[in-house]
Each structure stands twice: as structure tokens, then as C-alpha cells.
Sequence to fold (693 residues):
Amino acid sequence: MIDEDAYRRLLNQIADIAAVAGVKGAIDPEMGGFRVNVGTAQGRSQAVFVRPTGEVGGGKPMISFFSVARVYPKTKLLSAISNKELLGLLIKNENMPFARYGIQERDSDYLVVASADHLLETLDGDEFQAAATFVAMAADKYEAEKGEDKL
Amino acid sequence: MSADSTLTDKERESLGPFLEELLRNFSRYRREYAEFVSPKGADLVGALRHYLADTKAFGFECRATRMAGLAICRNADRVDAKCGVGGEYQRLLTGFIDTLAGTTSGDGVKDRLLRELAPDADALTRDAPPTIASQLPDLAKLRIACEAELFTELMAIPAVKEITGTFDAVRKLSDARCSLLQEGVRVTPRILPKVMETVTRLRRVIGEDVACEAYVFSQPVVNAFVTLQDDAAIIGLSSAAIQQFTGPGELEFVLGHELGHVLFEHHRLAAAPLLKSGRLTVRQAMRVRAWERAAEISADRVGLHVCGALQNAAAAFFTLQSGVSRAEHSFDLDEFSGQWDELAAEITALGQRDLWDCSHPVNPLRVRAMVMHWEAWNSATSTRDEALRAADDSVRRMLAMMDPSEVSDQAVGSDVVLSPFFFWGGLYVAAADGDLVDAEQKRLMEVSPPGVDAVESFKIASGQPDACLNRFRDELKSRRQKLSALELYRVMSGVLDVACADGVLSDAEKSRARQIGEIVGLRDMACDLVIDRYLNQAKVMK
Fold:
């Protein structure tokens, strides 16, 4: 349960941590998160969003790093991704360090994302940077593989 | 006054403040003078008339003391602010007699004075401690400001208002009296008469029209509480409390504390049902706990004034904290109170933030808070209100050490657990331009950690700035838990906030801020980003 004020406060704290990590970025009102552009392979870059997602025991705020790998209109997800591919994502999740694949639902589409969760209060600068990088690389990898039909 | 039995406006204007203060102190030793003391202004004419005809100790017509008695009272009052009524009074009185005897005709006079004064002096020390009953309208000054603010803040939350309203209805079904009669003993004039006498005397605090019942129940742990049933205040005292709080004024303090809760109507915010309701966010729950702790401070102050002496109130905490009685073991108030500084340093070193769920402030904090309030209360009348406000602010900062919800990103430097970093880092950076300007000094005073003499540190900063940097390093070394990124940002912005108190961050200051950044482990780019972010948010001139 995060009210609007608390959400805004936490978003600002995410920006504080990004500064300490030496990571440039800005709050993206549309995505409701702090946006960071992370360079990946071969000159590509991937947008990573960091936003508050809830609280764990004792009210410690949790934040989520996520990067969009692919957008599917709601009507086309099941035709675009086969059951085999979805199973493949689960297998990858088990073997992938510091990130996971998942699907976020929006009004008109589904987003295949790579994401990771952290506790806001104990996160340090290096962890912030690492989390953004791993999530970006995972999303980038999915995009690349999907483009080459390897998934 | 002596000449015409009245006071002109001019006499009142010039003598009024002096006499009021004198009278207030005098009334602590001669209780009949209390009726002339009122927070709205003392009845100076009535008091002076009484004084001029007074033949008892310290009265104008008392041959032994005359005007000197007033001076004794004033001095005794100052000393008793720390030591309690009685002991110091005797010492000063004896000293006065010795002096007087030495300057007149020797031992004959001394003996006569002792003979004359001894019965009165004895009566005075045996007299009931002064109560705040005569100062009831001043009670608002006892309530710590942040308690009322938190109450207003919490009652604006719909869930809090609703649950509190529901609980008011449930309270009417209270079975407190029934439970206590089952498990304890009701205090009456013939059952535990000493306790009954104290309760009866202190009832005046909440008003004679409020029924007050006390019960003692068997429990090996010191415990006391108050609840309301049928508009009667029901006080519960554990057997351990009765057995251990035996020193002068200790039981008065405990009972006064409980009655303070009634007086301030703390039952209006039912914390326990709120916290159990599951309808509050964690932050809201933190605020409820913060209010509870502030309410304890207010109640402590009532207990303190009721028992009449800081030493006695602190002794109650000594007994509570150590488990040993003052009758067999002595304790030094200054050292006991100073243990808050040690605890605060430990909380800082551990970066401890899990004290928020405590319903009571830690005892060393409560003792220090009482000392601060007492010293402010006993300051000169002309500066008392200001001193009380300053004491409230300091206590609020102490309470904030237990309350993560006080940390606000909008209020840079509000994280008091990090205050040593703000202070020493801020001092080092702000001193880069030479002498500290007033705004910087003011900000440093606001963030100064417990036990640090800020003004003395300002002198060090101008001559030996590296000493400040070393203190900053020492604080970092003594920190036993790694600073999180969020804490690092707060440290940096807190330091910058001191340096920018004058509205400018000079190049020299920026350079020193980078040094601080390096010490806490920030990379150059990170340091620049942090400084830029702070400056953009604070809209400070670069």
C-alpha cells in the first residue's frame, strides 16, 4: 500500500541513490519510474526504469528495476510467443544472474520485461549500477534473440 | 509599597518581573505564598502585604533572616534545580547562619538563630513537595510541542479518526476495575495508606472532581499504567513498583506521570487498537508510535513537577533502569543524564533504525529530556518561554533518533542518526571561506550532535580545519554498519546544506565537499551528480 505522496518520496530517493551511484537519469512521469539509459553490446542502449513496488517486513520499501524487451498487443501475445518460448523464458530465469523475465500487463498490451527487486534503504551505489546493468543486458539479450528467432 | 500600601504603575513595571520570579521561588519553601502566584500575573500587593507582616522564617518580620531570607531562597532554588528541595536548603541556611554569627557576636547569636529557625526549617523540609496544582494553567507549557502536532497530523487520517471513534465507544465497556479487583488490591485509607495519601495529594493535578482509584497488583516487574472507566482515572501499580520506588518523591513521580496522561487526555488517541487494526501504512504506524513517545515525555514532565525535584524524578528512572534502590546505591545525576550521549553515539555507530516500534522513549533519553526541561523551566522569567521552546526542539531531535518517519527528503539534515556527519563535514566545508557566517553557524547549531560543544568547535574550525575533517573520519570509522547509498546522499546533502546556509556554494567550499565525497567513497562523477542534484533542489547559487 503506497499512497501518492509516499510514491513520490520514494521516487526521489531512487534519484538520490542514482546520483550516489554516479548514474545519470531522470524521472519519467509516463512510466512512473526513474529512467536510466544503459549501454549494452555493440553500441546499443537499453532504457531501465526503477520504481517503488511495495514494502516488505517492517515497512522497508522495495524497488524494482525493469527494462522492456518487447511489447505485444493484448490480442497477439499468444500468437507471437509459443508455449515453448514461454517455457524457455522460465528456464532462462533459473540460470540468469540478478534478473528475471516476466510479463507486465497494461491496458492494451503486454510488456515482456527483464526485472530485479531490491530493498531501497540498504542498496548501495555499486548494487544500483549492477542491477541496472544486468536488467538492461537481459532485456537486450531477449530482443536480440527474438530478432534472430533463437528463443 | 511600604509607605503607601499600594503599587503605582511605575513601581509595578519596574519591580513586577523581579518580584514575580522571587515570589515563585519563595512559594516553593513557604507554601502559603503559592496562593499569590498565578501564571497570569502574581498578586504582588497581596503577597507583599503578607510578607511584610510575616514573622516566620524568611518573612520580613522574622528577626533572624529579614531580607537575607529571600537571597537564600533564590540561591537554594538554583541549586535545588539539580539537587532537590531540602538538602541544599539546609546547607545554605547553615552557611548563612554561620556567616551571620561570624559577623556579629559569635556563638550566642548562632545558637539563637538555630533555635529560631530550626523548627521552621524542619517543617519546611518535611512539608509536602510543592505541587503544580497552583500552576495548572501553565500545564500547556509542560506538553512537548511535537506531541500536539503529531496528534493533529494523526487525527487528519480518516482511518485513525474512525478507529479512535469506535474505540471510544468500546471503552465504555472497560473491565479494568473488575480485572484489577480480581488480580490486585484497591488502595484505600486503610489499605496501603501511604500510597493512598500520595494518590489523594496528587489528585489535585487532574482536578478534585475527577475520581481517582489506585490498585496494586502482584508483579515482579516495575509497571504502572492508567486507564479510564466511568470517567474515573484508574491507576495500576505493580508490587515491584511499590517496593522499589521508595526514595523521596519517586512514587510521586510515577503517579504524577500517570496522572499526566489523564490530564493531557492521551486516551483520546487509542494507539494500541490503531496499531492492531492493520489499516495503517507502516509510516502511519511509525507516526503513532512517535506520538506515543512524545506523550510519555509530556507525562514525565507532569511527574517531574509534581515530585518537585529533578533529583527525585531521575532517581525513579535510576531505579527503573538499574533495578537497584537509591537507598543502598548512590548515583550522580549529571553522569546518569550524560549516558544519553553515549547511547546516542552507539545508535549512530550502529545506524540503528529499528527503535521506532517502541511505545516509550529509551530511559536515558527520558532522563535527559527531563533535565533539559527542568533547566529551561527554572531559567529567568524573562527568558523562560524561549528556553522552554529551545528545550522542546532539542528533545524533538532526540526523539527523532528513534523515528525513521522524521527523516524527510524535503528537510535536509533531518536524519539525526547522521548528525555527526552533517556537523563535522558541514563545519569543514563551510569554514573553507574563512569565518563562518551567522546562517552557517545557526545551521550547524541545528544539526549539532549530542555532547558536542558547537561554539567551541567553531573556534577549532577557523584555526584547524583538518581537525574537523579528522572528526568526520573518526565518525565514519566508528560507524559499525556501512552507510547505504541513501545515507550517503543524506550525508552529502546535509554537509552541503550547512555550507549553503548563506545561499552560496563557493569554489573553495565545493572543493572541500568533493574531499568529503572522496572520504565516504564517492567516485568523482557521483560526487558531481550529488552536488548538482542538491544545488538544483535547493536552488542555491553556484
The beta strands of chain A are 26-28, 33-39, 45-56, 60-73, 100-105, 109-119. Chain A touches chain B at residues 1-3, 6, 9, 12-13, 15-24, 55, 58-59, 120-125, 127-128 (CB under 8 Å). The two ends of chain A are 37 Å apart (CA to CA).
